[in-house]
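Here's what a typical entry looks like (Restriction endonuclease subunit S):
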Amino acid sequence: MALGLTPQEIVDKKEYQLLTKASHWERVSLSDVASVQNGFAFKSKYFDRYLGIPLIRIRDITKDCTEHRYTGEYEASFVVQKGDILIGMDGDFTAARWQGPDALLNQRVCRVSLTTYHFDEKFFFICLQPYLKAINAETSSVTVKHLSSKSVGDIPLPLPSLNEQKRIVAKIEELFSELDNGIAALKTAREQLKVYRQAVLKHTFEGKLTAKWREENKDKLETPEQLLARIQQEREARYQQQMDDWKQAVKEWEENGKEGKKPGKPRTLSFPELPCVDDLDVSNIPNEWFWIHPGHLVSPEPYSIGIGPFGSNLKVVDYRESGVPLIFVRNITRKNYVDDLKYVDFEKAAELHAHQVHPLDLVITKMGDPPGDCDIYPETEPTAVLTADCLKFRVFEDYADRYFYKHCINSNFIKKQLGLITKGVAQKKISVDRFKTLVLPYPPFEEQRVIAGLIERAFETIEKTEKDIESQLLKAETLRQSILKKAFSGQLVPQDPNDEPARELLARIKAEKGAEQEKAKNTKKKPAVKRTRKGSKKVEGAAV
C-alpha cells in the first residue's frame, strides 16, 4: 500500500529506462508546473444510472462515458471537461485524457492541470505515464495499491527547452500515427479470425464441410434409427454388466460378514426422448444426422455428467499445495492445467469422487455471458476435482467423438442456446438439468471423427495466425517503448543551438512559481460556487 521511495529516489535507481533524461536537460517537480486536484467524495445516495451529471470513477477514466451519474449538489471546481488529464489513484495508476462530456471528479481520481506556459501540455502528458508506472512498481501492497497526490506532485519531470519539447511531440505523433495504424490493422485481423473460426463451425455443423465425404460413403452409413438403437442396446448391456458386478460385490460383502460399507447400487439407466426442434431456431442438417440431447451421448460410467461441489463441501481451507489438482474456470478458459494450481489431499478427493474429472473428459464453464466455454482435460494430466463453477461431461467414446463435441459446444449455435436457457437467471449459470436440455447434432461416428480432424487442422492454421498477430502486437509495443526511450534521452530529434538552455527555463519556472505562491498568501479565498440538482448556482456563505 505504501510507496517506500520518493519519486526522485526511484529515478536515482536508474532501473526504469523511460525515466532517463538527456544530459542537457534539467528536471522540474510536477508541482512546479502543474496543479494536482483530488476528487471529491460525492454521496452515494445521489448516484443514479440515468439522471444527473456524469460521475467519473477510476474505472471510467479511459472511457468517454460513466457508469454512474450524480443528482446532488456539487462545486463547479470539480467539473471535468473533455481533454482534462486524469489519474486513477488506486490499482494501476493510469493517466488518461477525459474523452466524455462535462463530468464530476470523484474521489480516488485526480486532475492534473498545467499552470505554466513553459511546459508543452502534450509533452507533459507523454512524460506522465512512465513515472506513474514506476511508482506503481515500487508501491508495496497486500490488497489494492494507493497513490497519493503528494507523490504525483513530487514527480521529477524531464525539462528540455520549450522548442525541443514541441519537436519531440511532433516526431512522436508522426511515428505513433504510423504505429497505431499498423496496430489497428492487426487488431482488425484478430477479430476477423474470430469470425472465421465461427464460420468454420457453422459450416461444419450444417453438414457442409463433409458433404462430399457422405456422398462417397453413403453405402457404409447407418440410418439415424439404426445408430440410436445400437447406442441404446450398448448402454443397456453396459448397465446390465454394472448390475452383475454390483450383485457379485454385495455377495462378497455379505460373505465377509458385511464388513465395511455396502457397495452402492448403480444408478437406474435412463435414455431421454429425442428432442423436438420445431420451436428452436436450428439449421437444417443432413438426412444422415439427427438431433439429440447430451443424455444420449453420456458415458454409462457413474458420475459421467455433473458439476463441482457446493461451496460448503469444498472450502478454501481444504486447499493444499500438493495432492489432487482442482479445476477452476480460469483453467478451462486459458486451457492451462499446469500453472497456478490448487490441490486437495487424497482423502478429500476420495470424498468428492462424484466430482472427479478424468483425462479426456469435457470440462465446461458454468458461468459467463453466455457461459459454456468447453475444453478437453488433457490426457497427460492426473485425475482432478472440479470446483463449483465448472461442469464435466464424459461422452460415450464408442459412439461420440469428444473433439467433435468440444467444438460443437463452443459454437455460436450452442452458445445461443445457453444464453436462452440461462435467460432471467440472476447469475448466468448452467445447471446440470439445463445442460441436459441442449440440442446437439449427431452425425455418424466415423463422420464425427472426419469433421473433428478437419476442424482441428483449420483451427491450427487460425491459432498460428493468431500467435503471429500477438507477436507483431508485442513488437509494436516494444517499438513504442523504444521511441519513447529515444525521446527522453534526447536522441529522437536534432538539437537546435538557438534553443533556450534548459537551466534558464528552469530558473524562470521557479521564479514564477515563487511569485505565484507569494500572491496566493495575500489573496482572499473566494467562496465556493455550488450547483444544485436543478443546475442553478449557489454561493457558499452568500445570502439566499
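The domain at 7-161+500-539 is CATH 3.90.220.20 (Adenine-n6-DNA-methyltransferase TaqI; Chain A, domain 2).

More examples are in the samples folder.
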